[in-house]
Each structure stands twice: as C-alpha cells, then as structure tokens.
Amino acid sequence: MNLGHYDVIRSPVITEKSTAASEHNKLVFIVTKDATKPQIKQAVETLFKVKVKTVNTLIRKGKAKRFRGVAGRQIDTKRAIVTLEEGHSVDVTTGL
C-alpha cells in the first residue's frame, strides 16, 4: 500500500512529556497503524526538511471508558518518536 506523506503522519502529540522530549531533538507524532519506520522517516524528512537519526514506534492501547452508562473503548493509536540529527529542529506547535 502506497501512503502519501500526509497520510503517514496524522498529527503531532502536544503533551508535557513530548514537549520535554523536544528539548533533546525528539518529536512525537500519531501515525497510521500500517506505517513502517522507513515510511515515517521519509515523511518527516520531506515535510519538515530535516535529517532524521532514528525512529521508534509504539502502540498506545485505547482505554475503556463509559459514556452515559454505556461501556465503550477508545481506539488504539500508533505513535512515532522521531530523533533528529544534531543541528536540526522543528517547532510542531506552529503547524505545517
């Protein structure tokens, strides 16, 4: 399956923990479930014009929630922690 760069990266993760990681040249993105590490690397390098050192991925399991007494479940999300080369930086809070 051939995914476009905007299809691979869904959104940046803006949390206290990911903001602290950005001080160490790391960015956190929510990516599609079937995105591979080389696809994520290529998408970040193309969209943000930076050099990527490593890509680590994890799948965050969705929580069980209740809404108006009805049990439900949030979806599982795949996240990518992208480490940039020295001298490269991106401010994801401003958008693309």
Describe the structure.
The chain has one domain (5-86): RRM (RNA recognition motif) domain (Alpha-Beta Plaits, 2-Layer Sandwich), CATH 3.30.70. The strands form two sheets. It has a four-stranded antiparallel sheet. The protein has a two-stranded antiparallel ribbon with strand order 4-5. With 96 residues, the protein is α+β, with helices and mostly antiparallel strands. It is built from three helices and six strands; from the N terminus they run αβαβαββββ. The model has no long low-confidence stretch (mean pLDDT 88).
- Measured between the Cα atoms of the first and last residue, the distance is 25 Å
Radius of gyration: 15 Å
Assign an overall shape: globular
The CATH superfamily title: RRM (RNA recognition motif) domain
Please report the first level of CATH classification, the CATH class. Answer: Alpha Beta
Q: What is the succession of H and E elements? A: HEHEHEEEE
Number of helices: 3
Please, how many domains? Answer: 1
Classification by helices and strands: alpha+beta
Number of strands: 6
Helical content stands at 10-25%
The whole-number mean of residue pLDDT values reads 88
Strand percent estimate = 35-45%
Report the CATH architecture. 2-Layer Sandwich
Strand order of the largest sheet: 1-2-6-3
CATH topology: Alpha-Beta Plaits
Task: Give start-end ranges of low-pLDDT stretches.
Answer: none
List the helices and strands and how they pair.
Blueprint: H1 5-8, E1 9-12, H2 16-21, E2 26-31, H3 37-48, E3 52-60, E4 64-67, E5 70-73, E6 77-84
Antiparallel strand pairs: 1-2, 2-6, 3-6, 4-5
